[in-house]
TrEMBL record:
SUPFAM superfamilies: Acid proteases (SSF50630). One of its GO terms (biological process) is proteolysis. It comes from Microbulbifer echini. This is TIGR02281 family clan AA aspartic protease. Residues 1-19 form the signal peptide. Keywords: Hydrolase, Protease, Signal.
Length: 211
């Protein structure tokens, strides 16, 4: 009997820790109303629902949550989180800024750097000072001509060991290192974006790892 009790308890805990769907229903100061698998909860920052969803932050415009170790920002325009129990693919959601640009932080070869999504760039584009800070080895790298808004210049063509954004990690990502201060921020081009699935929804850019 005791063994059956603990087995049942383990099943219940397992189910509670795997929320299938999370939806933002309302924002009330520093609290958020979340609907989790059909049940509604009002949470304050630092609190966790019985299903295992933690509210990290709530403002008048968004709620930031953690589900199964993944962080996600929800707004009333894009209120639905991923179906974590059914989808094993890593997912990142980016909010556009006032100019419609999507900015985030990435880890390049294990070092953190700010990046901006640029579907018009064929590779990751990195300026020379940033490449030095990241410790990128340019010796023996092929030098190629590149076109910028200021005209033609040259850049080093290299392969990055890894580029990580959220839970998405890609290896051997092609990049160009410019010989000057352009671009001011690392441009996340198609050598990364072409290897993930992208979807835009109500001003939110969704990146999903491919199986």
């Amino acid at each position: 009997m005791r063994k059956a009790f603990w087995l049942l308890l383990g099943v219940l805990i397992s189910c509670a820790a795997n929320a299938q769907q999370v939806q933002l229903k309302g924002l009330f100061g520093d609290s958020a109303m979340l609907e989790i698998d059909g049940r509604q909860h009002i949470l304050k920052p630092g609190k966790k629902s019985p299903e295992g969803v933690s509210l990290l932050e709530a403002t008048t415009s968004y709620a930031r949550i953690r589900v199964n170790g993944r962080e996600q920002k929800l707004t009333l325009d894009a209120p639905i989180a991923a179906s974590y129990a059914q989808a094993e693919r890593a997912e990142v959601r980016l909010m556009g800024d006032r100019r419609g640009h999507f900015n985030t932080e990435a880890w390049i070869n294990g070092m953190r750097v700010g990046v901006m999504v640029d579907t018009g760039a064929s590779t990751l584009a990195i300026n020379y000072p940033t490449a030095q800070r990241l410790g990128l080895n340019l010796s023996g790298a092929k030098r190629i001509p590149v076109s910028t808004a200021s005209g033609m210049t040259s850049a080093y063509l290299i392969n990055l060991s890894s580029v990580t954004i959220g839970g998405i990690k890609l290896h051997n990502v092609e990049a160009t290192v410019h010989t000057d201060n352009f671009p001011q921020v690392v441009l996340l081009g198609n050598s990364f974006l072409g290897r993930v699935d992208m979807q835009q929804q109500s001003g939110v850019l969704i990146l999903r790892a491919r199986n």
